[in-house]
Amino acid sequence: MTDSRRHSPAAGTASGAAPRIARGPESDRTGAPAPALRAPRARGGPAAAAALAGTLLLTGCGALPGVGDDPDRITVMTFAPEGTDATNMPGMPAMAKAYARWANATGGIDGHELRVITCNEGDTPRGASDCARQAVREKADAVVGSYSQHGNAFLAPLQAASIPYIGGYGISDDEFSSVVSYPVNAGQAALLAGQGVQLADECRRVAIVRPDTAAGDSLPQLLGAGLAHAGRPAPKDVLAPDNATGYAREAARARDLAGAGAEGSSDERPGCVTAALGERTETFVDSYRRLPDDGREIRFSSVSGSVDQPLINRTGGRQGPYEGAFVTGWYPGTDDSRWDLMKKVIGEHAFGDDRIDPADAGVQTTWIAYSVLASAIRAVNSDTVDSRRIIQALDSGTEVTTGGLTPTLNWRFTDLTGFAGYPRAANRSVTFHVVRGGRLVSQGKGIDDISKIL
């Protein structure tokens, strides 16, 4: 095959040869994961170019005939639940669209145009499976930066079609074992185990409020692993429905369990209540703050995805219920300069889409996931990029740097160390934060390798 990118006069070099990877000024200045850029090819003159521009940014359901057959275009899907009675992550597909607009406005990824299709997963196994099967029908080259707790429902169709699942949110255990999954964080397991370590020296007793679901069943054990690492007892387990409109009963029980035995104890540390309810955490805390004061000191704690800066802001900041809360996360704080490029892209290409919040862990995960995709496409180094070539690039040891937002990522089988039940966890770090003065700020160093605990 003739490489028209190498021999196109539009490449702008004296010999007519364009470098295989051209980095834009943002990559050079910030070190963040900007896509490699090259002017995209337009076949068939101005009319064809106009038609291409019209279809390039189409998103949503419904296939365009043959879109997966154009070697110049890379088609990917991002799916997440939206408009459900439980967890909703609308910022993830919205971030994916903004990333595509940015990449295409600056020449594509290694000369390839990026087409993003989105799907509402609906927070059901059927919805997750339907999204995956749509990706197969539309000949998607990857599913990137998505969210679903129904891992088996969507990974089985993707694995059968050899479509890589890059940078899922990490809410399901299957994401850390499937051979076509390339996680960018250590998932809920790392957050809960890390939270146990964070709370071990701060709290006398710990109670965890978590969803009464299959995905929630392992959370007490994970939190307990972190506590046990520091020689502390297991947390008390409080089950809660994941679609409730109020949690008065669960809040009262959690407070009683966390505060039990305070009278007459020489241990003056407070009790702690950990809530791992996703976006329902706000509902739980609202119920908790309505309980009559019983004089016991109880501190609140949670994990990234359940508590973030926007939530703290809209609930009163330093005067709100989250002041003093402990929060365990995957990534640096939102005020860290390593997020500057992502914020710039949101500012210039999200067009005011209020679904995208740079402090949202889902948005952050999608940004990092698309950075991995860009690195894989550059590693393929070809006019033709498809799902199997992307898998081969990632499996062969392509090292992905994310501008310091994560450790260097590498999914070569011989390099994966992971931890029990999570063999494909290439990023095993967690970060510690605390709410002080209404701001979510760093608390200590965090943990570089959670596998030492798990």
UniProtKB/TrEMBL annotation:
UniProt keyword Signal present: yes
Family of the protein in this entry: Belongs to the leucine-binding protein family.
Keywords: Signal
Residue span, Leucine-binding protein domain: 83-402
Name recorded for this polypeptide: Leucine-binding protein domain-containing protein
Residue stretches in coiled coil: none
Region spans: Disordered: 1-43
Biased amino acid composition, Low complexity: 9-19, 30-43
InterPro entries named among the record's database cross-references: Leu-bd (IPR028081), Peripla_BP_I (IPR028082)
